[in-house]
Specification:
Order of helices and strands: HHHHHEEEEEEEE
Number of strands: 8
Shape: elongated
Number of domains: 2
Oligomer: single chain
Strand order of the largest sheet: 1-2-3-4
Strand content: 15-25%
Distance between the termini: 61 Å
Largest sheet: 4 strands, antiparallel
Number of helices: 5
């Protein structure tokens, strides 16, 4: 009973919410491809989800027990309804995050300009297709700081282009249930290696 009360308290919810936020910030920086499917993160999500469900039930229960008084005080009514909606919204978000953690797939894909990648070799897709990066470019502010990052992409099925789109940060390309985000960029160094009489090799 004491454990149930602790798990359903708002204090526990705030602590768990802080832990999930801190863990997500650290994990996404150090292990972006693996952390969100690790058992510690899933455990935190499960505990927070249970806490939010219990808090929502408790808040709703207080609302119905005191509905006569609450209905006469519109400020108290709005406050109570706001709390219920807040908890329900957090539960909805956590359910989505849990489904993504268990069922979703996420990989970091690096493509050079002009290169094509076979997506079925990277992600489980229902229909094979390729992704080609035509061009990457950066838009700058007047002071020289980056304003936005763009990537011109093509979706190919065989030799046929089925979709062309320019993506930017937070504006992905969506195709066949897969979302492609512009998340980062970098530089590749091309090195020409000569080893005796062997054919020169290009290393990237």
């Amino acid at each position: 009973m004491r454990f149930f009360k602790s798990l359903s308290s708002m204090t526990t919810g705030l602590v768990l919410l802080a832990l999930v936020g801190a863990a997500a910030a650290i994990g996404s920086s150090l292990w972006p491809e693996y952390f969100f499917r690790s058992w510690p993160f899933r455990l935190l999500l499960a505990l927070l989800l249970i806490n939010m469900i219990l808090c929502t039930i408790n808040t709703s229960g207080r609302f119905f027990r005191r509905r006569a008084r609450i209905s006469r005080d519109w400020r108290l009514l709005l406050r109570t309804l706001g709390l219920v909606m807040l908890h329900a919204g957090i539960v909805f978000i956590l359910v989505g995050a849990s489904l993504y953690s268990w069922l979703g797939h996420s990989v970091q894909l690096s493509i050079r300009e002009g290169d094509t990648v076979q997506i079925e070799n990277i992600l489980p897709v229902t229909k094979p297709f390729d992704l080609k990066l035509d061009k990457f470019y950066i838009e700058f502010h007047h002071d020289g700081s980056p304003a936005q990052y763009y990537a011109d992409l093509q979706v190919l099925e065989g030799d046929k282009t089925t979709l062309e789109k320019t993506i930017k940060v937070n504006y992905p390309l969506v195709y066949n249930g897969v979302k492609f985000y512009q998340s980062s960029y970098g530089y590749l160094t091309e090195v020409l290696v000569r080893d005796g009489e062997e054919t020169p090799r290009t290393l990237l």
